[in-house]
Design a protein that fits this description.
Layout (H helix, E strand, L loop, with lengths): L1 E10 L2 E11 L4 E5 L6 H8 L7 E6 L2 E2 L4 H7 E4 L11 H11 L4 H14 L15 H13 L5 E5 L7 H14 L4 E6 L2 H7 L5 E2 L5 E2 L5 E2 L12 H16 L20 H9 L1
The chain binds adenosine-5'-diphosphate and magnesium ion.
Length: 276
Amino acid sequence: MIEVRNLTKHYGPIAAINNVSFGVERGEVVGFLGPNGAGKSTTMRILSCFMPASSGSAKVAGYDVFSQSMEVRRRIGYLPENVPLYSDMRVAPYLDFVAEVKGIGRSERRRRVAEVMDRCLIADVQNRLIGRLSKGYRQRVGIAQAIVSDPEVLILDEPTLGLDPKQITEIRSLIKSLAGRHTVILSTHILPEVSMVCSAGRAVLPDGARPSPGGGPTRRGQRRDRPDPGRAARRAAGDERRRRDVRGGGPAEPRREVGDLPARGRPEVDAARTAA
Ligand SMILES: Nc1ncnc2c1ncn2[C@@H]1O[C@H](COP(=O)(O)OP(=O)(O)O)[C@@H](O)[C@H]1O
Ligand SMILES: [Mg+2]
């Protein structure tokens, strides 16, 4: 559903992402995991047709994000890092407005807005001004605007950033509830978030920033889906650096190894581990 090949983006001399490649299958919820500055937002802006890449290609639902951007836009919902909500609008009219911009007819809009308010648990604040809502509720409204057109693909940029622990739990369970109906890619710098929210704990890593000859950070894109237990040993040498990269959640987050994640909920891997 999402296919990224050798994606590179330069901001002047800075390589924000360098040769990132990964794929996401239909219906999966996948974490895009990396520390601050790893290029998560840059990748998501490219996937959502917000800006072009310097080189490489990205396809969403089979359409190229650069040459077929209108087709892509029709099929995605995007929650940017800083949610662009109109603080002087009320929740329900705002969602109706977003749905109208996305080309949904009036009667269909009414149904969709009611449905997403139910799914995002914001029906009780539908007549409140967005600017007066708590950050947790504003984030729910942000997710509601991303799903109001019932998109195939959802791109969520750090959806739990800046929320308190209770709000984080609520937003994570909301995202989990979107699985199956939508293909979801969400960025995060918190490793345990991946195991809590994503399908089989699946994460894609931009693999950490390194200084480039030009002085800017560069990173090598890698696909880390579904490793078998035997790969753990081969990975061991690189794990210490990677663990440094993924400990961005701070001291409050339990330490987990990247290699532990994909095994969750995968019977064949669990069985292999038990046998070993
Ligand atoms: N508009 C921009 N102009 C110049 N540099 C940028 C811009 N946006 C991001 N960068 C740089 O690109 C790198 C990746 O940024 P970003 O994609 O925001 O990472 P993340 O979302 O993982 O924190 C960082 O070094 C950042 O400073
Ligand atoms: Mg970011």
